[in-house]
Amino acid sequence: MTSDAVRRVQSGVPWEEAFGFARAVAAGDRVLVAGTTSFRGDVLYGEGDPYEQAKVAFTSAIEAIGEFGLGVESVIRTRMYLSHARDMDDVGRAHKELFDSVRPAATLLVVEGFIDPRVLVSVELEAFRG
């Protein structure tokens, strides 16, 4: 695959520049969205609320695939990382509201924590642009 076949977009969160990564990368028929939290710029939305954090994070991830002309109907895989198992139902409810009509393959994991301890949820998604 040539470098012309790969396109990257940034969202502007500080960690993209600090760590050297893109919010989303399109390669071939796939668009991959990196771990996305409810930060928009330097502001954390939904502090203390896993449902709200999941909604904001997934909305940001969906906006990232929008840069490639895709929408929620193109999502084929999601991953949800939670810092607390107790938040599973809230995050699952947010996922269902956004993806129920699409039914992507989904994985939910509990992790030890995130860079910022206020973050309760991080999400990833993969879209198909065939």
From TrEMBL:
Entries under InterPro entries matching the protein: RutC-like_sf, YjgF/YER057c/UK114
Pfam families: Ribonuc_L-PSP
Protein name, entry field: Uncharacterized protein
Organism listed in the record: Streptomyces naganishii JCM 4654
